[in-house]
Amino acid sequence: MLESFIFSVLNGVLYGMLLFMLASGLTLIFGMMGVLNFAHASYYMLGAYFAFSISEYAGFWVALILAPIVVGLLGALTERFGLRNVHKHGHVAELLFTFGLVYVIDELVVLIWGRVPVNYQIPDALDFTLFSLYGSQFPAYRGFILLVAIAMFVAIYVLLVRTRVGMIIRASLSHPDMVGALGHNVPRIFTLVFAFGTGLAGLAGVMAGNYFITEPGMAYAMGPIVFVVVVFGGLGSLGGAFVASLIIGLVTTFAVGMNYSVADLLAGMGIAFGQDSVLGINLSRFGLMLPYLMMVLILIVRPRGLMGARES
Amino acid sequence: MKNTMRLVRRSLATVGVAAALAVPAIGSAADDTIKIGLIDPLSGPFANIGDLGVKGFTFLAERINEDGGILGRDVEIVPFDNKGSAQESLQNLREAADEGIQYITQGLGSNVGNALVNGVEKHNRRNPDNRVVYLNFAAVDPALTNEKCSFWHFRFDANSAMKMKAITDSIADQKQVKKVFLINQDYSHGQFISKAGKELLAEKRPDIEIVGDVLHPLGKVKDFSPYISQIESSDADVVISGNWGNDLALLVRAGAQAGLDVDYYTYYGSLVGTPRAIGEAGEGKLKTITEYQENLAVDKNQADLQELGETFEERYAPLEFNVLRTKTELHMLKKAMEKAGTTDPLQVAYAMEGMTLETGMGEVTMRAKDHQLLQPLFISTLTKDYKKYDAEGTGFGWKTDVEIPADETAVPSSCEMKRPPRS
Amino acid sequence: MSRVNTSGSAVLRRLAVWLVAMAVIAILPYIFTSGSSVSMMSQMGIFIIFALSYNMLLGEAGMLSFGHAVYFGLGGTMTLHAINRVNDGAWWFPLELMPLAGGACGLFFGILFGAVTTRRGGVTFAMITLGIGVMVEASAHIFTDFFGGESGVTANRVTDVTVLPFSYGPSIQVYYLIGAWTVVAALVMFLLTRTPLGRISNAVRDNPERAQFVGYNTTITRFVQFSLSGFFAGVAGGLFAILFEIMTAANVGLIQSGGVLLMTFIGGLGVFFGPIIGAVLVIYLQVALSGFSDGWILYFGLLFVLMVMFVPQGIAGVIVAHVAPWRAGLLHRFVVPYALAVVPALLSFVGLVAIIEMGYHLSLSYNPSSPIELFSVEVVATRYLSWAVALLVFAAGIASLRWVTGQIGSRWGDVNRAMDTQGHGND
Hints:
CATH topology of chain A: ABC transporter involved in vitamin B12 uptake, BtuC
Largest interface: B-C, 64 and 64 residues
Radius of gyration of chain A: 21 Å
Low-confidence stretches of chain A: none
Oligomer: heterotrimer
Low-confidence stretches of chain B: 1-30
Strand content of chain A: under 5%
Largest sheet of chain A: 2 strands, antiparallel
Radius of gyration of chain B: 23 Å
CATH topology of the largest domain in chain B: Rossmann fold
CATH architecture of the largest domain in chain B: 3-Layer(aba) Sandwich
């Protein structure tokens, strides 16, 4: 009992941290620019693929640095030549633009790397067992993911709150004209922010691509859940994204272990009811629906999410 | 004035709409080829499997044509992209029928398979002059040869019940196995395996304990470590899973990362892309049940099958040829057409009932009762101890463990087939 | 948007459009006779209704929904169950009216889900609809009695219970049934835009705060509009079910919802007939294009992205923008710039298609060095020359296109100024 609890906590925290790495960039972009970047998971996928290609020539560690930068550059280009023209048409148009971008990026990935999964592996240096717990091994790479995720959180927070650049960025969102009048190039700031956000997504891809599988469907698989995290935590709130990632990671993981149904619980209380109906369905089967249910509930009850600033 | 504008605007719109319907006339004219429509996903997430199908069939058709074709005519494979959707497949069926194609084949997805059986039945009933035969090479839902059986449908892959029978027979023979864990995708395929697995094991080895029976959402789980933790704490010896694609690859990889030591009995361990995705994680543990894998050609001294596989891989590396049943399908079609002396669907379908064919793995029979092919099945393990061919460049290959002869794979069928009159 | 002219001739003119539409629908199968064309046109009819219902939300009330397929799919599934009941002899209900069963189901769920979603607007609303869409799709695999599990629900539309003496077995009969429903549904939705509900929805879309100040309850307005749009989505779903005789979990999912969003947007949000154009175009592309090219998803994505960037008002929006100049007698001023644009556009298009097709061929085809046929020219994708030519053509096209669009832009400026001085404003 304790064993499965500990495993669930470890697994849940890890999954949550992976979600956070993806969600951080998304919530930043929204917070800074008001753009809900549907294509965020596609940049994540690009990060994984670039890491694969780069690591074939130069090894994992070079890829770890280079791939997010390349993705960020692509993001900058997208913003400069695409999104920038769309800002004037409003938020719905921005959303639709990123929506269409998903199709384009996903197909380009297929064109370049093919339809079959690519062999992006965990580097040998990190491919050992960190420790053993109750007979199950905890891979070192997982520890590495945890480290990077926490480092990301700290770095972004410091960058935004404690530096001048961060201050200017935050000001540009609420008072773009004023900031422009003060001599800062606001459009370029937006490009930078978008590049930074997508670069973060790329970094998440580098970390997760070899932990999971790097294949063309990975963007579509990760996309929706990241939105749930960001919305649940509060659009634009980094701390909210962190907390929400942990919560959703843990909830999803614990739900998997719930190998009983409502009818079973009732039976445990002495009430024989509903075994053949909906109530008899194993709760773990609803596990992955739970985050969406949580998102819908929080949007109804508290639309700004856990730690969001204001309702949009 | 304004109303006229609106009128004109609307009329322009309707005319514009009509003009946009410039559908190019589809339909090749006098090609005297025997066309077989291949309906599978050629775009979207499963396109790699559909693509392998197109290449495989086209390759096989070329060889048949080099050998003189069928009844003196060449075979032509016409691919249709169903984008993985059941309704799109019905649209493809209509297009194929329009083009005069009388034989369609499909593999990926029992949802599509079900839709096609339904669609073909209705089409043939409503268009008796333009009938179509549906050759199914991978949709394994047992219903298609049981309650939903159709005269116009022929299945060339062992169905899910047959595979489960073979797997449970093999597990039952292993006396040291005491605990079995079932993990499957939460939809009809996985749900069936879960149910059938429990029933059959209980029958054959009541002493085996089912220590887990998990259904997880299809294609949505990224992190299988919670499930691996469950398997570990249950102390299972063997895992049975009908998972395919990422759901299988991620499961096995997560198991390897946690140091889990179990045997995985799978349906789709050798599906294109899976060995590469799993790699070392499956070494010695990943087992699969199929009608063929490349090293069987070595086991059985089949030189031409080896040559076929090598030529295919040369052309299409990294793809490999291990879907022998597609070859069985085309060759049985050829034999049936030659026996009937015509390509007319009704005559050919009757000719195919009960037909046998020698495939190099053994003799196969198309059971007349339910149009289910009975062929030998093999359980193989992914290992570094393989005979000749490795799987997808991983450095590991398939090694045959168990052979199940064709007649032993048969399961009873509830099919009550309604047959059309012979002429 | 102002006084409605109810004189005899005006009503007749308005009626004439619908009559012309009916005539066109009636004649089309005689022009495009193949079975797959009839099937494609049937799908167009269905998606016209679906896209119009979606426009009730997005275009008229400003509600961006990512889960509209829920009502479409649930409506269709309910319709199949109803047809099965009729086939079993349990119910008596004519096939022609079966889409009403779908509509009723769509209305029911529209009310049910609408009650929770319409309290919020904007992005919040959009995310709630996304969440509901995902949950319904996921539950389709769990509630297999209703959804039929992975293979879905099937039915036989030849129920022998009909009002008119047709069996509806042959697809041409189903086409006319769908055509009739398309006209009726479109007419009703059009009339709805003319009702107070339609006008107030527009107000809520344009400025919710002001609408509230004037005294309208934004939540109730959105709720009613949402429920009604669910009804029509359900009708479309019912017709879809009759056409294909099968509904699966995919019909309630994100991809189907994304598709109707695409159609409506491409056609044009601000104009009633916009979604009609969008539905026709997108269905045509989906059915015909995927037969021509495996890269149809990429073309789609590019089309969508380019439209959002340069033509966000949609095709209908572009058409409508030319009405004012036409009325002012200035339309002829555009002839030359538009004519000039033809060649650059063609060059860009040809170049782009060549690049994409060669790319797909090289990357994914059976035999990469075999020639492909591009616009009746045989091209070998593995030769550098082919790529050089394609890139050159594309670059030339884009460069000249940029120049031409500059010309067109300044011509629009001239025309607008001319219209201002003539005293014809934009209505």
